[in-house]
Design brief:
The chain has 5 helices and 15 strands. By secondary structure, it is an alpha/beta fold. The strands form 4 sheets. Strands 5-4-3-6-11-8-14 form a 7-stranded mixed beta sheet, with helices on both faces. Strands 7-15-9-10 form a 4-stranded mixed beta sheet. A two-stranded antiparallel ribbon has the order 1-2.
Length: 274
């Protein structure tokens, strides 16, 4: 704590009973966004947290990973997303990090965070995904108003509005004091029979895969199963992968299931789920 201030600049955890016993404490973690004395308007309307940390999969090429990230980032930008938070593991191809930083460093669209390399068998679920979503919420608290928790093969796809910001503003007006908005998971498949004619109509342009695939109507899940959420960061408290566990105390509804006619979670997969 700096002299004259009650707000710490760094925090650490310790299992020692002795005060400030550095030998038994964790690494110091900077306090990035302390709660302001007044409640200002968030700087960002809609943000995205990528739940699963990025890592280089066996057999995946640099070009494939780069294109996958480009499709995801630019499609979200087109939908009105203003900030995307990505986490990565140590084994990620360093060229990917260089590419992301070189392309987006000046735009304030992307924040890239190094993540501890958890194993898949640990209880924190898939490389620490449960910690990722909680950390991402706190990282963007008081900065982002609406925060989507999705993966890079998913897009929250609005049907009644042209942007996620406009959609969320209307949902918030109609269902005030709701901590999270739940979107039904609908699968899209990469199959030649499902391709639309968009690439032919847009000759000379690279069309992201997210607008090339047709809806597979038979492949839907009920709310709560593989769903994802957009949060009100000032109301959500404890998160799970597909929902939230708790919201702030008071007259707050924990969640609202967004009708499929308003928007869905479009989940793009190369093969059907087994």
């Amino acid at each position: 704590v700096m002299p004259g201030s009650e707000i710490p600049e760094y925090v650490a955890l310790s299992t020692s009973r002795k005060d400030c016993d550095v030998a038994y404490s964790s690494d110091y973690v900077p306090v990035r966004y302390s709660k302001p004395s007044t409640q200002p308007q968030p700087q960002v309307g809609v943000g995205v947290c990528v739940q699963t940390p990025l890592f280089t999969e066996t057999g995946e090429t640099y070009e494939h990973t780069k294109q996958k990230l480009l499709d995801f980032i630019e499609t979200n930008r087109a939908l009105g997303v203003e900030l995307i938070t990505l986490y990565y593991l140590a084994n990620i191809d360093s060229r990917i990090l260089s590419f992301l930083r070189d392309r987006y460093a000046k735009e304030n669209l992307l924040q890239v965070v190094k993540w501890k390399p958890f194993t898949m068998n640990e209880p924190l679920h898939y490389f620490g995904e449960l910690l990722v979503i909680q950390e991402c919420l706190f990282r963007n608290l008081h900065r982002v108003k609406y925060l989507a928790m999705i993966d890079i093969d998913e897009i929250v796809l609005p049907y009644t509005e042209q942007s996620l910001g406009t959609m969320m503003h209307k949902l918030d007006q109609d269902h005030g004091n709701t901590a999270s908005f739940v979107f039904k998971n609908v699968l899209f498949f990469d199959a030649k029979t499902n391709r639309t004619s968009l690439p032919e109509l847009c000759q000379g342009y690279e069309v992201p895969k997210f607008v090339q695939w047709k809806l597979a109507l038979a492949c839907q899940f009920p709310y709560g199963t593989r769903s994802k959420v957009i949060l009100r960061t000032d109301l959500a408290v404890e998160l799970d992968i597909h929902t939230i566990f708790s919201a702030v105390h008071g007259h707050v509804s924990r969640s609202f299931n967004v009708p499929q006619g308003v928007a869905v979670l479009a989940h793009y997969r190369d093969v059907p789920l087994g």
